């Protein structure tokens, strides 16, 4: 098992290099640093001096991959590729185009993201499993049919409408929660309730339907029929035989997204003014801050790979039949 | 010619898609097992109803893709065309397009939504001014409701008449169609949906001659017109994206599963790398880069329409690049399984070349997965467009789209009283399209997925 995990870690390296190359090509080869400078400084009437200065301040004035003027290792290290891409591997994100320290910003903004994402995940899981178990228990009945219809209808509503609807209805008309904002410490709770609620509700449709399919798949299996034939009650069959076996795919589905919880929710955070990583990313995209977007792409890829690794581990823990070697 | 046709890039792809769909229908009719699977879809009432709704959306999208430049008023010998490109749909909705008010007005309103200074005979006073077009045929004392009710009644009668006419015209040929055999109930539901859609359409058309059915927006443009124009954007994103990614996903997926070895390793590496980048961020990065490129090469785009069309196409391309990995992985798995089956082994033993096996023996047998993924992805892509436009990395702000409608309407929610109709329009139009797509996708998956067939 240990050997397998170590091998998987090594597999991650070429993938991260690939991600790095991809973002490098996307950001520096497709468009030159001059183009970016012009976009930032405004397209019209930009002097060459201003462009050169913008590039010098941000370190974009170096050669792309190979510095023919430098000697020794500096020929490789004194380049945009090394300075902006290779350093990401050491999680050294450098400073953003507006001059702030990205690493510090990320470490600060991580916590509000987690404070929102973790409750959504836990409550959402509980709600979806309960709802889908009820549907599976009454399978084939009108309750099941209309439950599934409700799920499909809820899936068909854009996430934007859940947020806007929640803000207008619960926040503005009924004044139950503050519409947006954030506070430090335990005061944050009242700001988090509404976005968390919306996050849970908007995921019920797809989540419950998916879990219902998993439960029904287990219900049709032989060991469940055997249990029923032995006279085990339907509730007990569902709780003990079906639920525990369906838990394996549910668990792995959850584990794979665990690390990406750090990244926060783009929409919820920006609508509710929560200073997490999601709104950080959106602000960066809207301000066209390439350095931050690049850092977040790399971070996201690392977290995704960690998620895949955790999934493998959770398989062995949840299902003794699975052996990694 | 009274007009000059203009074919935008996405138009060309839409027409290409139509030709492909026609080929598909012909292909299906040649194969008994495919007819059988589609008949199964045809027997589901919900699916047939959803299919009819989707057909209306697609028809509007296609009408809106036929662009042309009308003849300009010219007196000389030289034929000159208007500089503005419009579509057939624009032509049909000329009234809706041109009846602009000054600013916000509520649905079915006869007065503007905000007070203004009005000059009267005895000095200026502050009141809600009358609309230029909305309810202009009514007197100050007339109520709106009876007039609307009368129009609704008219359109219901007209709608039923049109449906009956089409039904009678189609009756003979419909009963001859091979795959409507044994589809009694679903058949009826489909016609019922058709009637409802026709009645709704006629009602909207008749009502919009005298009213702004869904109100007007900040600059006085009819919201109904915006919502209808957005249909094309939604349909293009939902269908074109999948089309763009298909060749790469199919070829690479099948090759990885069939050849294995280093080919498999390389392809797996490729899609793992792509899928490990968070989708939204990859799209954001690509769109940012595209914006830089476009602002540096403005000379390449002649008109605003051309530029926003190019951006729409780019968006489809980028969305396709981020979403082909899922299909590729599925196809690889399926091909791995098929490669072990006896008929493929037999073909190999007979010395059939690898490419021929891939083309003749593997590809047709993984096509059901492709079909399922196409219909399943459609709704997700339509929803994604709205979210991306909200973050400003979606379609061009000049393009009519539901995302742009939501985005501009969102800021108006803070107004007192709330301007809600733009949101409502975007919500209803989008919800119906996505719901119909989801329902049809379910039926198609149930009919074509052999794994599900074994269970039932």
What secondary-structure arrangement, pairings included, does this model have?
The complex is a heterodimer of chains A (325) and B (456).
Chain A: H1 2-29, H2 33-41, H3 48-58, H4 74-77, H5 80-85, H6 102-137, H7 142-155, H8 159-173, H9 189-219, H10 222-229, H11 234-257, H12 266-272, H13 277-286, H14 290-318
Helix pairs in contact in A: 1-14, 2-3, 6-9, 7-9, 8-9, 9-11, 10-11, 11-14, 12-13
Chain B: E1 3-6, H1 9-30, H2 32-42, H3 45-63, E2 67-70, E3 86-87, H4 88-92, H5 94-98, E4 116-120, E5 123-127, H6 144-176, H7 184-210, H8 223-259, H9 261-276, H10 279-296, H11 304-339, H12 342-349, H13 354-390, H14 402-410, H15 421-448, H16 450-455
Antiparallel strand pairs in B: 1-2, 2-3, 4-5
Quick rundown:
Chain A is an all-alpha fold and 325 residues long. Helix content of chain A is 71%, strand content 0%. At the A-B interface, helix 1, helix 2, helix 7, helix 8 and helix 12 of A face helix 9, helix 10, helix 13, helix 14 and helix 15 of B.
As an assembly, this protein is heterodimer
Structural class of chain A: mainly alpha
Percent of residues in helices of chain A: over 70%
Q: How far is the N terminus from the C terminus of chain A? A: 6 Å
Poorly predicted parts of chain A: none
Compute the number of strand runs of chain B: 5
Mean pLDDT of chain B: 83
How can the largest sheet of chain A be summarized? none
Strands of chain A, count: 0
Number of helices of chain A: 14
Mean pLDDT of chain A: 82
DSSP strand content of chain B: under 5%
How many distinct helices of chain B?
16
Order of helix and strand elements from N to C terminus of chain B = EHHHEEHHEEHHHHHHHHHHH
Radius of gyration of chain A: 25 Å
Taking the sheet with the most strands of chain B, its summary is: 3 strands, antiparallel
Strands across the major sheet of chain B, in which order? 1-2-3
């Amino acid at each position: 098992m240990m050997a397998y995990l170590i091998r998987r870690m090594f597999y991650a390296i070429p993938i991260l290099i690939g991600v790095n190359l991809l973002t490098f090509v996307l950001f520096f080869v497709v468009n030159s640093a001059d183009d970016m400078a012009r976009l930032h400084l405004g397209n019209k009437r930009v002097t060459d001096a201003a462009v050169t200065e913008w590039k010098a301040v941000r370190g974009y004035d170096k050669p792309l991959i190979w510095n023919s003027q430098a000697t020794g290792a500096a020929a490789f290290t004194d380049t945009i590729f090394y300075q902006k891409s290779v350093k990401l591997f050491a999680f050294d994100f450098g400073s953003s185009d507006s001059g702030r320290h990205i690493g510090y910003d990320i470490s600060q903004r991580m916590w509000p993201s987690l404070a929102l994402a973790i409750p959504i995940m836990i409550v959402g899981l509980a709600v979806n499993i309960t709802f889908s178990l009820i549907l599976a228990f009454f399978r084939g009945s009108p309750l099941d049919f209309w439950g599934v219809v409700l799920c499909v209808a809820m899936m068909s509503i854009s996430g934007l409408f859940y947020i806007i609807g929640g803000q207008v209805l619960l926040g503005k008309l009924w004044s139950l929660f503050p519409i947006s904002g954030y506070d430090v410490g335990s005061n944050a709770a009242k700001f988090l309730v509404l976005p968390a609620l919306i996050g849970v509700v908007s995921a019920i449709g797809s989540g419950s339907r998916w879990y219902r399919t998993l439960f029904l798949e287990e219900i049709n299996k032989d060991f469940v029929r055997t249990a029923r034939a032995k006279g085990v009650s339907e509730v007990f069959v569902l709780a003990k035989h079906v639920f525990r076996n369906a838990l394996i795919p549910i668990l792995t589905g959850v584990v794979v997204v665990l690390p990406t919880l750090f990244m926060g929710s783009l929409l919820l955070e920006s609508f509710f003014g929560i200073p997490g990583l999601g709104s950080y990313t959106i602000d960066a995209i809207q301000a066209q801050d390439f350095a931050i977007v690049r850092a977040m792409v790399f971070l996201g890829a690392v977290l995704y790979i960690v998620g895949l690794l955790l999934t493998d581990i959770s398989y062995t823990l949840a299902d003794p039949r699975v052996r990694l070697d | 010619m009274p007009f000059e046709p203009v074919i935008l890039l996405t138009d060309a792809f839409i027409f290409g898609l139509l030709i492909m769909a026609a080929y598909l229908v012909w292909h299906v009719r040649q194969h008994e097992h495919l007819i059988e699977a589609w008949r199964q879809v045809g027997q589901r009432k919900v699916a047939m109803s959803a299919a009819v709704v989707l057909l209306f959306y697609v028809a509007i999208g296609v009408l809106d893709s036929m662009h042309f430049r009308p003849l300009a008023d010219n007196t000389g010998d030289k034929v000159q065309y208007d500089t503005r490109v419009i579509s057939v749909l624009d032509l049909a909705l000329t009234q809706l397009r041109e009846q602009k008010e000054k600013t916000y007005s509520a649905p079915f309103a006869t007065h503007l939504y905000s007070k203004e200074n009005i000059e009267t005979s005895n000095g200026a006073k502050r009141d809600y001014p009358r609309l230029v077009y909305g309810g202009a045929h009514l007197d100050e004392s007339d109520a709106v409701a009876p007039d609307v009710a009368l129009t609704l009644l008219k359109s219901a009668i007209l709608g039923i008449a049109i449906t009956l006419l089409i039904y009678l015209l189609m009756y003979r040929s419909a009963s001859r169609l091979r795959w409507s055999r044994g589809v009694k109930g679903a058949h009826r539901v489909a016609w019922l949906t058709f009637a409802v859609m026709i009645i709704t359409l006629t009602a909207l058309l008749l009502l919009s001659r005298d009213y702004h059915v869904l109100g007007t927006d900040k600059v006085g443009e009819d919201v109904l017109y915006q919502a209808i124009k957005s249909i094309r954007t939604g349909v293009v994103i939902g269908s074109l994206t999948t089309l763009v990614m298909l060749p790469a996903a199919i070829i690479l997926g099948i090759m990885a599963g069939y050849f294995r070895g280093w080919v498999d390793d390389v392809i797996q590496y490729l899609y793992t790398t792509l899928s490990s980048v968070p989708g939204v961020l990859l799209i954001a990065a690509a769109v940012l880069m595209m914006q830089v490129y476009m602002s540096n090469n403005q000379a390449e785009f002649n008109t605003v329409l051309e530029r926003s069309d190019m951006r729409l196409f780019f968006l489809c391309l980028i969305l396709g690049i981020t979403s082909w990995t899922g299909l590729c992985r599925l196809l690889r798995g399926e091909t791995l399984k098929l490669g072990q089956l006896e008929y493929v082994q037999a073909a190999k033993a007979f010395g059939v070349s690898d490419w021929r096996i891939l083309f003749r023996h593997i590809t047709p047998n993984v096509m059901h997965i492709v079909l399922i993924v196409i219909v399943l992805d459609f709704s997700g892509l339509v929803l994604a467009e709205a979210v991306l436009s909200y973050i400003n990395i979606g379609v061009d702000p000049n393009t009519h789209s539901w995302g742009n409608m939501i985005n501009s309407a969102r800021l108006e929610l803070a107004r007192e009283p709330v301007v809600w109709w733009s949101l409502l329009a975007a919500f209803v139009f989008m919800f119906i399209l996505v719901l119909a797509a989801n329902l049809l996708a379910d039926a198609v998956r149930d009919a074509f997925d052999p794994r599900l067939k074994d269970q039932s």
